[in-house]
Give the backbone structure.
Amino acid sequence: MHLLYLDESGSVADPQQRHFVLGGLSIFERSTHWIEQELNQIALRFARDPCCPYDVELHGSPMRTGRDGWDAHHVPDRIQAMKDALSTLQRHHPRDIRLFAAVLEKQNFSGQDIAEVAFTQICSRFDQYLMRLYRSKNDKQRGLIILDKSNTEARIQTLARDFKYTGHQYGVTRNYAEVPVFLDSKASRLIQLADLVAYAVFRHFEHNDSQYYEIIEKCFDAEGGVIHGLYQR
């Protein structure tokens, strides 16, 4: 099964922010363990107990700004940890990992449900990626979207069912095994990595801070020179 881990960056309701991002990574289920091990080694640099890396949660905004206990660590160390985590994507692309992100400039979607627009884009693009795998490699594996826990859980699951049975503006989804699953990010390194992806994209478009984005910019799903994994409007 191909798993798409997603998280948000930016606030739909914050008028001071111009962009909202939904983004993350697609990974084949058998590869998740190895990525998790690499991320655990990064987390261990900041763990109080060297035997328990899971006490450290890798999250972009707290790591950069020093929230949630990260102020106990030096800024250069925190920034380097973010870059090292994102570099795991670079090393495993494209064999194991493809990135997907929807970047919405909120003023372009006045009166619309921005979270719905972003999810529609990602859902459609991941579905098309799975279809390409089937056609080009006879890969019949289905997909599953996994998101961080949020107050949009019920809405997203309803949308996924609608996309399967009645379709969305781009057609009907055909390659999902189940409606999206929501996890607590503390329990999933891959959700944390999705957070770092979304945050890297947000920093690039919202603040012209590309130091994180430049690590992953060539990892978005693409075919024949056409980038399918990144939607920007």
